[in-house]
Amino acid sequence: MLKVSNLEVVYHQVVLVLKGVTLHVPRGETVALLGPNGAGKTTTLRAITGLLDIHDGRITKGHVRFDGREVAEQKADSIVGGGLAQVMEGRRVLVELSVEENLLAGAWAVSRREAAEGLERAYERFGILADRRRQQAGYLSGGEQQMLAIARALMSRPRLLLLDEPSLGLAPRIVGEVADLIRSLADDGLSILLVEQNAAMALSVASRASILENGRVVHEGTAEELADDEDVREFYLGLGGDGQTDYRRIKHYRRRRRWLS
Amino acid sequence: MSTWLQLTVSGLSLGTIYALIALGFVVIYRASAVFNFAHGELLAFGAFAMISLCGAGLPWGVALAAALVATGLLAAAVERLVLRPMIGRPVFVTIIVTIFVGSVLRSVIFIAWGPQTRGMPTPWDPLTTVDVAGASLLMNSVAALGAGAAALAAFFLLVRRTKLGVAMRATASDQETALALGIPVGRVFAATWFLAGLFAALAGIFLGMFPRNVDTNLGFVALRAFPAVIVGGLDSAWGTVLAGVLLGVLEVLCQGYVNPYLGEFGRNFHAVFPYVVMILFLIVKPHGLFGTREVERV
Q: Which chain A residues are Cβ-neighbours of B171 within 8 angstroms?
C-alpha cells in the first residue's frame, strides 16, 4: 500500500538526513519504524506526508508511492485527501479549539455529511471525548489529547495512518491503552505505520518492523524476529542475552552493533 | 440627553468602523503573524473603487458589493504575490514589505484618482436625519453602525459555525498541524486576506460617508484604529471589536465633552485620545483586554 524506496532527504540544502530509506507497508498491516533520536524517523514521515517544505527540506532522490501513485511531490492537503493521515509527534492538539472543533479540523477533506458521521464514530470509539466535546482541548490530559489526536486523524477516513511516537510522555497504563487502540484500528482494516522509540510497545502491536539509524534502514523483519534478535533486545528492549544487562562490560567498551560494521 | 444620545450613536458608528479596520489587522496577524501596514491603503482603495463604480452608473448596492469584492481580491493578490514568497523570513522583513506595498498602493491610488477630495455617494440625501428618542441622528452614521454590526456578526458566525472558520482558527493556532490535517493553508491565507480586504473596504466606504470625505489620505485613518488592536489584545478578534467600539465612543464623547474645556489646546484632542488610552493600557495591561493567556495544563 505504501512503498518508500531509496528515499534521500536534504535539509537546508546541506544536511543529508535520509540516506536511501526503503520501507514497505502492506495493506492491512501494522509496520513499526524504530530508531534512536535523530535517526530520521520523523523526517521519513514528513517526506511521506508533504510536510518537508515548511522545514526547508527536499526529497533529492527516491520515491514515495501510495497505492501505486507517486506522492513525493504532492501538497500535504492532496495527500490527506488521497487517504493518508498522520498523527504528529507531541499530539499537537489545537489548544484553543474545543474537542469537537479539533475533530472537525481533521475533516476538511471529507463532505459535511461524512464529517457528521465521523464525529459520531469518534464519540462512539472514544467515550471520553464525547463527554468533553465542548471543552477546550488544551485542558485535556496527555492521554486524552493523544486519543483526540488519533480520533482527529481518523476524521478524514484514511486508509493508511501514520503515527509518530504515540506513547511519548504517557504513563505506562495509558501506553497500554494506546497499544490496544492501535490493535483495534488494525482489526478494522486500517494500515498503520508506527514510529516509536518505545520498541517493546511497537513490537507488541506491529507485524513487521524496520530499524532506522543515521538515516539508513539497518534491520528489517517480522516483529517476532526482531524481538528475538540479540542486538534489538540489548539496544532497544534493554535486555541482555540472559535477560540482564552486564554493566561491568558496558563500562569498558560499548559493543558494536553488528549491522553497522 | 439628546446631545448625549447623538454623540453616543455617532461614537458607536465610528467605533464599528474602527472595529472593522482593527479586525482586518487581527485576522491577518492571527493567520500569518504579519502586521499589515498596507491595510489603510486597501481601505482607501475600497472607497475610491466605490466612488468610481457609482460614477459609472451602477446601482448603489451593486457598486457596494463590487467594491468590497474588488478590494478583497486585491488583498488576496497582495498576499499571494508579495507575502507568500516571504514565508519563513523574519517577521521584521515581512512588516517592512507591507509598508512598501502600502506606499506603492498609495501612489497607484494617487495616480489613478488624483489629489482632489470627493464625497462618497449615498442612496439617500447625505444630510438625511432619523429621529430617535428626541435626538436627530445622521442617516449616514446609523447606516454605518448597521452595516458594520451586520458584517461583524457575519464574521463571527463564519468563524464559529463553518468549515472555513474552523480551518482558519486551526491555521492560526498551529500552521503545521493544519497542514498535516489536510487543510489547504495557502487557500486559507487567501481567504483570510480576502476577508480583511472586504472589511477594510466596508470601513473605507462608510468612513467616506459620514465623518469625512474621501481623499488620498483616507488610508491614514487605519492608524487611528491601531489603538483598538492594542487595547483589545493583538490576537483576540472579540477583544479588538469591543475595544474598537469603545474607543470610537470615547473619542466622540471626548470631542463633545472634553475638548471645549481645553480651549485652544483641545481643538483636536479627541484625535489623540485613543492613543492616550492605548498608552495607559500598554503600561497597565500590555496584553490588552483579551490578549493571549496561554492555556496551561496542570
A: none
